[in-house]
Design goal:
CATH class: Alpha Beta
Shape: globular
Distance between the termini: 47 Å
CATH superfamily: NAD(P)-binding Rossmann-like Domain
Radius of gyration: 19 Å
Helix content: 40-55%
CATH topology: Rossmann fold
Largest sheet: 7 strands, parallel
CATH architecture: 3-Layer(aba) Sandwich
Structural class: alpha/beta
Number of domains: 1
Strand content: 15-25%
Order of helices and strands: EHEHEHEHHEHEEHEEEHEEHEHH
Strand order of the largest sheet: 3-2-1-4-5-6-11
Length: 338
């Protein structure tokens, strides 16, 4: 198969591209190499991918429709997986326009080109943040998403609705998948695990919001990639729901939303303790109040994912955190005591 993956120099896109290449597929990557965080990390990821047969990356911004169309016109894709976005919940409070440009306009461009140059399956990355102020858990794909708490969440929910319109109007088979607190090797420096690990190793305080009274449905990146890969072969067909209690399949389009999470939330303090165990040192903890736009708990209902793919994320946090700490120490040439 020939896959187009946007955001291949990013955390998740890098891992997904490697998995697709391992399976013998061809991957055409798109990435803007934006300086939201250290571009050298993106370059390192891309260098590893460029060494692989079957991979090629175009350096282009999603907002640049003219350059994007040249790529679509020259290539033919079996499956389009749109991961690229302006990430980060808290950064959306500082630079909201970046989220409109990348997430809304960029996604519109990708959808419009997928309409003009059809593929078998269009896949869109979304987020558990789409559930916003919902308090009934676990979150189900059919829950309302009308109460986003940040512009990041609002833009991702908007792209879900935009892609549904395109799916309905032009019969584009579409799957939107919602991530739940993804972590793992080659992670972004703005993510909690990276910050906590760096702080504990450097003996600097780590900020712990809401005094640690938070729970997250942490999903190891390899599990996420497995879910995406399997879903890429589960192409939605209108009026053909999957067997089971419920399905998010649209009644008017070949469109489905799927949670990719394990449904086993972990307390934030327990997560930090796992990092401390791996490093062999206690954190200097700076307890803080809840940040605007944050939520105290996320839990995925993964029943639909499991029925579609016969897979449910299950990597223990202890295993995933150790893998990240080992990678971090190797990447930054850190020697842990003992």
């Amino acid at each position: 198969m020939r896959y187009l993956v946007t955001g291949t120099a990013g955390f998740i896109g890098f891992h997904l591209a490697r998995r697709l290449l391992d399976e013998g597929h061809e991957v055409i990557g798109l990435d803007g190499f934006t300086p939201y965080y250290d571009v050298r990390l993106k370059e390192h990821r891309n260098t590893l991918l460029e060494r692989r047969n079957g991979f090629h990356c175009h350096r282009v911004m999603l907002e640049d429709m003219l350059e994007l169309e040249k790529i679509w016109a020259a290539e033919k894709f079996d499956i389009v997986i749109h991961l690229a976005a302006q990430a980060g919940v808290r950064y959306s409070l500082e630079n909201p326009r970046a989220y409109i440009d990348a997430n809304v306009i960029g996604t519109f461009n990708v959808m419009e080109l997928t309409r003009r140059y059809p593929s078998q399956h269009f896949m869109l990355a979304s987020t558990s943040s789409s559930y916003g102020a919902n308090t009934e858990m676990p979150f189900r794909e059919t829950d309302r998403t009308a109460t986003p708490l940040t512009l990041y969440a609002a833009t991702k929910a908007a792209t879900e609705q935009m892609s549904h319109c395109y799916s309905h109007l032009w019969s584009i088979p579409t799957t939107a998948f919602r991530f739940f607190s993804v972590y793992g090797t080659w992670g972004r420096p703005d993510m909690a695990l990276f910050k906590f690990t760096k702080g504990i190793i450097d003996r600097t305080p780590i900020d712990i919001y809401n005094h640690g009274k938070m729970e997250r449905d942490f999903t190891y990146v390899d599990d996420l990639v497995e879910g995406i890969y399997r879903l890429s072969h589960c192409i939605p067909v209108r009026d053909q729901p999957v067997d089971g209690e419920f399905d998010s399949l649209s009644p008017v389009a070949p469109y489905r939303i799927v949670n990719v999470g394990g449904g086993s939330p972990i307390n934030l303090l327990e997560f930090i303790e796992q990092i401390e165990t791996c490093i062999g040192r206690k954190a200097i903890r700076n307890y803080m109040e809840m940040q605007p736009g944050d939520v105290t708990r996320t839990v995925a209902n993964a029943d639909l994912l499991e029925r579609l793919t016969h897979f449910r994320p299950a990597t223990p946090v202890a295993v995933g955190v150790k893998a990240f700490v080992d990678w971090y120490c190797d990447y930054h040439d850190v020697k842990l005591e003992g």
